[in-house]
Specification:
about 210 residues, mainly alpha, 2 domains, 9 helices, flat
Length: about 210
């Protein structure tokens, strides 16, 4: 999602308000999604880590503060662009938006890499698999359906075939059939025909193996 928005910004002529609208809408979507991502972490993951590793939890809380600062700067620039009257003003503001979004992107890539390394390690060290799965289920239950639908679309676009197959197998085993079928529909819409056929074949082989 970050990469897609960044490419759109690189290609945008900010003189043209109509052309810029699509790229700026993508930035708004990114900011909304990442704000929710941080909120979910602050509600479910950070408190679980803080019980055993308060310094680790505090470091991520501080990073979330910085993330909000970067996001708010982008939001302010979007308002300035929206109110710019002259084309030259829009061009200057557009360049500032590109720079601010690049900083936001780099920060969040580094932040998420640290999460994968430090938060996951803390959870694995102090909680059983069953406890982590239960916490994950609580987090999922807190996400609104429209937010989940949007996130799933980007997950389908971004993950490997192996990860998608494992994900769909797990959903089929643990969720109602309509949830599984909905994910298949999203996968069919978001990935190539070749990839979807490969994933369908793998899921069918898994089904036959279980018979």
């Amino acid at each position: 999602m970050l990469y897609d928005a960044a490419v759109s910004l690189q290609q945008t002529d900010f003189f043209n308000r109509a052309e810029a609208a699509g790229a700026l809408a993508k930035i708004n979507d990114v900011l909304y999604t990442f704000d929710n991502h941080a909120r979910h972490e602050d509600s479910f993951i950070i408190p679980a880590v803080a019980i055993y590793e308060p310094e680790t939890a505090e470091s991520f809380e501080k990073e979330h503060v910085e993330d909000h600062r970067l996001a708010n700067r982008l939001k302010n620039l979007l308002v300035i662009y929206d109110n710019a009257f002259f084309a030259e003003e829009r061009s200057v503001c557009g360049s500032a938006i590109v720079r601010a979004f690049t900083e936001f992107l780099v920060f969040n890539l580094n932040h998420m890499a640290k999460e994968e390394e430090l938060l996951n390690q803390a959870l694995w060290e102090h909680y059983t698999d069953e406890q982590i799965i239960a916490k994950h289920q609580q987090l999922l239950a807190s996400i609104a359906p429209d937010e989940m639908q949007a996130v799933v679309k980007w997950m389908m676009r971004g993950i490997s075939n192996a990860d998608m197959i494992e994900w769909l197998k797990n959903v089929k085993q643990t969720s109602p059939e309509f949830v599984y079928n909905n994910l298949l529909d999203i996968a069919e819409a978001e990935i190539s025909e070749l990839r979807f056929a490969f994933i369908q074949d793998a899921l069918e082989e898994e089904k036959i193996a279980q018979v």
